[in-house]
Amino acid sequence: MRILVIEDERRLADTICAILRERGFDTDAAYDGESGEAYAKLGVYDLLILDVMLPGVDGFELARRLRAQRITLPILMLTAKSELGDRIEGLNAGADYYLTKPFDSGELLACVHALLRRQGSQVNVLSFGNTQLDLDACSLVCGERSVRLSAREFDVMRLLFQAGGNNVPKETILSRVWGFDTNAVENHVEVYVGFLRKKLRSIGSDVAVEAIRRLGYHLEVRHDPQA
Ligand code: CA
After folding, report:
1. What is the mean pLDDT of residues 125-153?
2. How far apart are the C-alpha atoms of 149 and 66, rounded to whole Å?
3. What is the CA(43)–ligand 1 centre distance, in A?
4. 200 C-alpha to ligand 1 centroid (Å)
5. Which residues have CB less than 5 Å away from ligand 1 (the ion)?
6. What is the pTM of this model?
7. Residue 156 in contact with residue 192, Cβ under 8 Å?
8. Contact 62/41 with Cβ under 8 angstroms?
9. Given the DSSP bridges, would you call strands 131-134 and 139-142 parallel, antiparallel or unpaired?
10. Residues 49-73, buried b or exposed e (16+ Cβ, 10 A)?
11. CB of 130 within 8 A of CB of 206?
12. What is the pLDDT of residue 24?
């Protein structure tokens, strides 16, 4: 499980990361809205902890932008204020839960576990175009047709679906799917994308895996699925 923390108070951000790492989570910290947004779009995180008061793009705006781009990762919003208005604005912006500062590590962990549990039980299907990725059956589904994916194909496909049409860098796919297998090379990603394209076509999907040279891959909806 990988958690992204976006908080401009570095000591607090680093403390949150340390608390989470102690419990076995992988963490990354971003200290401003712009770089945080770039991280969040990588599609590699299971949860976002997002501070409201950030220089530049604030937490509300950032949450709205992510939701507008169909990025569905759960958002735990941190706010220094406890006024009702802020909470409502946060929830309207797309946050799943908020935590009022100051909080202790127990409260933080309780929120994190609750959100991840909820995510696990609610999200067992990801959608893009006319196609669903069934996370329980490890299969792609389009109407009444479906096709099973191998473990690696599934891992690659899930990263692309989670990114909701945003680019996923090749290096991200390589490190998330192949981990520290030092024999894996970028060519592996291309080979698996090739398998996935065939499987998408085989069920009549309108989803295409598009490549941007050197940058990575993203999903697109094709308007002429027969072509
Ligand atoms: Ca702040």
Report:
1. 91
2. 28
3. 23
4. 43
5. 8, 51, 53
6. 0.56
7. yes
8. no
9. antiparallel
10. bbbbebeebebbebbbbbeeeebbb
11. yes
12. 86
